[in-house]
Amino acid sequence: MSTKRPSATVRWLDADEERAWRALRRMMIAVQSRTAHDLAAIGLSDPDYEVLSTLSERPGHTSTLREQAAKMGWSRSRLSRHATRMEARGLVRREPDPDDGRGCYLVLTERGLETLGDAAPTHLESVRRHVIDRLSPADLSALESIASKLEEPA
């Protein structure tokens, strides 16, 4: 077992930074778990909703598995396993990708589109209840600004 000690060049968090970091973590966990709980009550997981909503916005309701996995921050194999479960429920189907012999397209089915349409009001109410309606317009603007900074690679 290694007992490596951090180097002297480690920039430890000061008290304000530590509080901010912990607050961010608690916020991300709380919002994600609450909105996921609300989706679960109608039979969808958070990843199900992400796949369905993303595909609904794409031309032809189609995306490559690679693009979808990148958007979700998942590996292709993890998304492929999840897509298999969604396929079994008739929410998506796969089609071969002629440009990538190992890849495929994910296509939103009519049932998937109907499921999304049925779930969207519940999800939007959840987002409003857990986030939007609890913040002022200035808070929302600040949140958007902070989120865009944190989305960029360091």
Automatic annotation (TrEMBL):
Record region (Disordered): 60-81
Record InterPro entries: HTH_MarR-typ, MarR/SlyA-like, WH-like_DNA-bd_sf, WH_DNA-bd_sf
SMART domains reported in the protein's UniProt record: HTH_MARR
Domain spans labelled HTH marR-type: 17-152
Family annotation (Gene3D superfamilies): Winged helix-like DNA-binding domain superfamily/Winged helix DNA-binding domain
Source superkingdom: Bacteria
Pfam families associated with the record: MarR_2
PANTHER family tied to this protein: MARR FAMILY REGULATORY PROTEIN, TRANSCRIPTIONAL REGULATOR, MARR FAMILY
Name of the protein in question: MarR family winged helix-turn-helix transcriptional regulator
Organism per entry: Streptosporangium amethystogenes subsp. fukuiense
